[in-house]
Design brief:
It comes from Tepidanaerobacter syntrophicus. This is N-methylhydantoinase A. One of its GO terms (molecular function) is 5-oxoprolinase (ATP-hydrolyzing) activity. The chain is α+β, with helices and mostly antiparallel strands. Among the domains are: 113 residues, ATPase, nucleotide binding domain (Nucleotidyltransferase, domain 5, 2-Layer Sandwich), CATH 3.30.420; 138 residues, 3-Layer(aba) Sandwich (Dna Topoisomerase Vi A Subunit, Chain: A, domain 2); 112 residues, Dna Ligase, domain 1 (2-Layer Sandwich), CATH 3.30.1490; 63 residues, no CATH class. It has 15 helices and 37 strands. Helix 3 links the parallel strand 5 and strand 6. It starts with a strand and ends in a 5-residue tail after the last strand.
Length: 688
């Protein structure tokens, strides 16, 4: 026997997906998260799984997990004490940034505080020009002074970012050598190795964030590896990157910033897989958990990628799946603000003390409490009966914190909480679709996470989306995505040149160098030659523009035909993004990117035959439920989802319960289950 385990660490629960590679069986498990040390919940959860399913530790041949360690360290500012060495005259670059205010209309909102204080930023004399030539040689005496000063300040990490090092890294490499000579125990991150790209502020910011996280991730990796070994599991675990792929856990020590949004990215990978099953390649993912909601867009079966995003107010220039995250989850706390308006989130009750209905110390009303009161959630227990809930405590919290401060009665207050949180999530869906030029009506909404299927239909109907897809075990889709991910390394180089015939030779030289580097990285990961593949991209813009659009190229050397196709693709993308294009303008290439991909064995989910005459099972119970937009409670049948057979079709209202989630099917929605046990919900006035 052999088993694959995917683990997703959430703010409230840690999710597990386990695949038996011999039989194809797939099962899921949830365990309360341990925010003080995420590895505790992982190890204890794995221990329970091994015991419950009689799995021997040595039978586990794959283990991957999405980690929130980097994210939490940045949010809570609990990273390492970090110093920075940069070119003389540029010590204030982190403070100056882009000279943008955090909020255009709020003059009092403070700018984010840099992760390196001014007293730990050291300048050294050196200067490399835009063409890579040396204007001022590196003053090594300056470097020795800087390193000795930072050592005296007891920094745990040093970031190095000098001007134009992405063209000529010689000075940064020499600074690194001196750091390792004088202060060998310190963690070091240099920009020319991490992000050899154009734009100095983004490059410096990313390098600093990476250095800030390095010692934290290094400690976590060692503790996690030891804990896994203590369970008897002998394989080396993987960690999810923000681009949706996996890398060996030891690789994360060098570039922990690449794991900054690793958890949500696994859910998008899982959504792509489910979309293929449903033959649906236009999907908006809606992942709502206990703490946050993550939304992303999949077009033509491919997630949208971003090369940069803000992390705690500072740019992190790393390839990642383009995900919009908002503080809207089942644990989001509702309150009345000073102006008398109801607000929900972003503060969350989290795993501890949790929603009031959990009965473990929480006293403030949350989205989960509102769903309990409205009858959408089981009013006695969740997690398949393993976790008791208390309706009276939910009612008490809403009355004390909402009703007492407004004219709302209990039901109006609970319904208001759901209306507010739904509005927040609709804005996030519009942000990744309508505001980026997509027709939202062409997409299906895929709902997952513990709370996603609770809200999906009501959100979809407000947005004009006609189809909602709910995968089996939606609360653990992120952990399933970890079983579907490949190894991937994203490499980049910057060299600004016009996209024209005479530059083809140099373009190919840049790609060839990255291909060789990518191949070596896959070799280190143990990827066999027949399982390696590569994708090529360029970041292009019209000459004299300031921002680029990414264009994928064929996986072959660039020729005149390939270059011309890329230029035409750029014109089309420019029109879609900005509403116009101009074929007379010269196209300029700024960045060159390679994705080196290693294909990993994945579980195969088998399709079951559909019986169009399959009937619904006997309901577990009938419950009064208040749906959004309805004036009164409706008596609604509650079903066990696992007992709804493939091919079964029925009309709402109905509620389906399973171990990790609850699916709310309002009136005017119909449902059917396909051969993979995906639930396809359609808004059509209730007609099948």
């Amino acid at each position: 026997m052999a088993y694959m385990i995917g683990v997703d660490v959430g703010g409230t629960f840690t999710d597990f997906s386990v695949s038996d590679t011999k039989t194809g069986a797939l099962f899921h498990y949830k365990y309360p998260s341990t925010p003080e040390d995420p590895s505790i919940a992982i190890v204890e959860g794995i221990g329970e799984i091994l015991k419950a399913y009689n799995i021997k530790p040595e039978e586990v041949n794959y283990l991957a997990h999405g980690t929130t360690v980097a994210t939490n360290a940045l949010i809570e500012r609990k990273g390492a004490k970090t110093g920075l060495i940069t070119t003389k005259g540029f010590r204030d670059l982190l403070e100056i940034g882009w000279q943008k205010r955090p909020s255009l209309y709020d003059l009092h909102k403070p700018k984010p505080v840099p992760f390196v204080p001014t007293n730990l930023i050291c300048e050294v004399s050196e200067r490399i020009l835009h063409d890579g030539s040396v204007l001022i040689p590196l003053d090594e005496e300056d470097v020795y002074k800087a390193v000795n000063y930072l050592k005296s300040q007891k920094v745990s990490s040093i970031a190095v970012c000098t001007l134009f090092s992405f063209i000529n890294p010689a000075h940064e490499q020499r600074i690194k050598e001196i750091v390792q000579e004088v202060y060998p125990e310190v963690y070091i991150s240099i920009s020319s190795e991490l992000i050899p790209e154009f734009r100095e502020f983004s490059r410096m910011s990313t390098t600093v964030l990476n250095a800030y996280l390095g010692p934290v991730m290094k400690k976590y990796v060692y503790n996690f590896e030891k804990s896994i070994r203590d369970t008897g599991i002998r394989i080396d675990p993987y960690v999810t990157q923000s681009n949706g792929s996996i890398i060996s856990i030891s690789e994360t020590i060098d570039s922990p910033i690449r794991t900054a949004v690793s958890g949500p990215s696994a859910g998008v990978v899982g959504a792509v897989y489910i979309g293929e099953q449903c033959k649906n390649n236009k999907i908006i993912t809606f992942d709502m958990g206990g703490t946050s909601a993550d939304v992303s867009l999949i077009e033509n079966g491919k997630p949208q990628l971003s090369s940069e995003r803000l992390v705690e107010g500072f740019p992190a220039r790393i390839p990642m799946i383009d995900i919009v995250t908002i503080g809207a989850g089942g644990g989001s706390i509702a309150y009345i603000d000073d102006g008398g308006a109801m607000k929900v989130g972003p503060e969350s009750a989290g795993a501890k003390p949790g929603p009031a209905c959990y009965g473990v110390g929480g006293t403030k009303p949350t989205v989960t409490d509102a769903n309990i009161v409205l009858g959408k959630l089981n009013q006695k227990s969740i997690l398949g009966g393993r976790f008791a809930v208390h309706r009276d405590l939910a009612e008490k919290a809403i009355k004390e914190h909402i009703c007492s401060k407004t004219n709302f009665d209990l039901i109006q207050a609970a319904n208001g909480i759901i209306s507010v949180i739904n509005s927040s999530m609709m804005r996030a869906v519009r942000l990744v679709s309508v505001e980026r030029g997509y027709d939202i009506r062409e997409f299906s909404l895929m709902a997952f996470g513990g709370a996603g299927p609770l809200h999906a239909c009501e959100i979809a109907s407000e947005l004009g989306i006609k189809t909602v897809i709910v995968p089996p075990s939606p609360g653990t889709l992120c952990s399933l995505g970890l079983l579907m991910a490949d190894v991937k390394f994203d490499l980049s180089r910057s060299k600004i040149m016009i996209a024209e015939k005479q530059n083809i030779k140099e373009i190919n030289e840049i790609f060839d160098a990255m291909l060789e580097e990518g191949k070596n990285m896959l070799i280190r990961e143990g990827v066999a030659p027949d399982r390696r593949s590569y994708k090529r991209f360029i970041d292009a813009r019209y000459e004299f523009q300031n921002y680029e659009i990414s264009i994928e190229l064929p996986d072959r050397p660039v020729t005149e035909d390939v270059l011309e196709e890329a230029i035409q693709s750029f014109h089309k993308e420019h029109e879609r993004n900005y509403g116009y294009y101009n074929e007379k303008n010269r196209v300029q290439i700024v960045n060159y990117r390679i994705s080196a991909i290693g294909d990993i064995d994945k579980p195969t989910l088998k399709e079951s035959p559909c019986n169009p005459n399959a009937a619904l099972p006997e309901p577990l119970e009938t419950r009064d439920v208040l749906f959004q937009g309805r004036p009164d409670f409706i008596k609604t049948n509650i079903y066990q989802r696992e007992k709804v057979a493939p091919g079964c079709a029925f009309n709402g209202p109905a509620i389906l319960e399973e171990m990790d989630s609850t699916i709310v099917i309002p009136p005017k929605w119909s449902a059917r289950t396909d051969g993979f046990y995906n639930l396809i919900l359609t808004y059509n006035g209730g007609e099948k």
